[in-house]
From TrEMBL:
It comes from Rhodanobacter lycopersici. InterPro entries: NAD(P)-bd_dom, NAD(P)-bd_dom_sf, NAD(P)-dependent_oxidoreduct. Residues 11-128 form the NAD(P)-binding domain. This is NAD(P)H-binding protein.
Amino acid sequence: MNTSKTALILGATGGAGGEIAAALLRRGWTVRALVRNAARPGLDPRIDWREGDAMHAADVAQAAEGVDVLVHAVNPPGYRDWDKLVLPMLDHSLAAARANAARLVLPGTVYNYGPDAFPLLAEDDPQRPLTRKGAIRVAMEQQLAEATDVRSLVLRCGDFFGPRAGNNWFAAMIRPGRPARTLLYPGRHDLPHAWAYLPDVGETVARLLEREGELERFARFHFAGHLMDDTALLAAVRRTTGNATLPLRAFPWWLTWLAAPFVVMLRELREMRYLWSEPLQLDNRRLLVWLGEEPHTPLDQAVEATLRSFGCVA
């Protein structure tokens, strides 16, 4: 247990940020978080909530005073203006981490890889993304690599799912707010795909931070998570819902083409289609060397927690 360190979480009301905060709290850390409205209902009372906006450098700097770790798990709301806001927001976090000699943590994705690196992604594989969002992810990590006076940690993961997940593929496949009736699968049949259960991601970051002093300045790890094809995911959803005949149908990609000019979320999903056309797995051997094991919640338990949070099971 570490009772002497403080972390600032940007994005603590979201998926990755919320689970990292929860894992650090379990270990005795003092956790602060930046939120636009500190009086909003439902905020975890164990967290020191500071009112402010991650898009304002002064707010981030003030909230970060005296912290040991700064977790940058925040994105522009609704995927809007990614190209204009993402890199300036990271600049604010870098400046705050630098001012406090804190390690900056960035939950990473596979967006910064192109198909030439598939199917098994290692930390040092070339990053040649096909998409605008992928190019921004590459630029974010490049900023960390070039900030030689800031220690950073990147944990790259597959597609997120879990009880705190926000915009994610799981919610696009099973409509939240009603009993699960259909699984709309976006990928090709029998292709394994990497999924990251968010509580396991949070636990992994916390365990790595327990050895912060041993990490290299720009530390990168891959999180393997759950490797599933459509058959395995469908079976887990059927077991969780108790519906042995719940059907599997193809995700309506045609709808993303029609609605993309009007719905930002669908436009962003369409851009990521290439990730569902090839097998996709993250090589976690380096992480295993460091931790001895990767935190891993059983699949049925993870799927049940996710569907309960969606309101899809009683």
